[in-house]
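Recap slide: TetR/AcrR family transcriptional regulator, sequence and predicted structure.
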Amino acid sequence: MAEVASARRSRITPEREAELYAAVLDLLREVGYDALTMDAVAARTRSSKATLYRQWGGKAELVVRAMRHNKPGGIADVDTGSLRGDLHTFMSREDDCTMERNSDLMRALAMAVHSNPDLMRAFQELLIQPEMDEFRRVMQRAVDRGEVRADRPALEYVVHMLVGAFATRTMIDGLPPTQEFLRSYVDAVVLPALGVPTTT
């Protein structure tokens, strides 16, 4: 899917692609995934529907690629020399306002995934799996540095722990995730589970 999509998207400029993604996310916030249509995207972006289908194949891929584009650089790009530094830096890439908006968007999209097989497939292939792969690289760096033992059971659950922090912050505390909350969560939950000291 990724290679085909890359060939399709090569026909438009990166600037135009970014504009389209921004418009898609605006529509997604306004009407939700189920009510979002390619007709509406075409009208909002002054594009033809044929162009959108040629570039992205359908709504599911377009929406998930817009979500992926909207995220800050991947955690694999961060290398501070320590796992704690990497995770803290990654958690600080979005300000609290942006994090709240994106968290709301991701939560709404995650709910839609369960009733849309195409969205589920795109979500897994274009968003979840690449992030899992990036986190595995970061964890392997920590293992190679001697920070984390290779047989530590929590290594396989780092992404689950972090997603849980985002997902449950609103449900349990009635508050959006913030940089301060996520950094404290990393120190209190993630690093101890990996056997990493949390001294500053």
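The chain has ten helices and no strands.
The radius of gyration is 18 Å.
(End of recap.)
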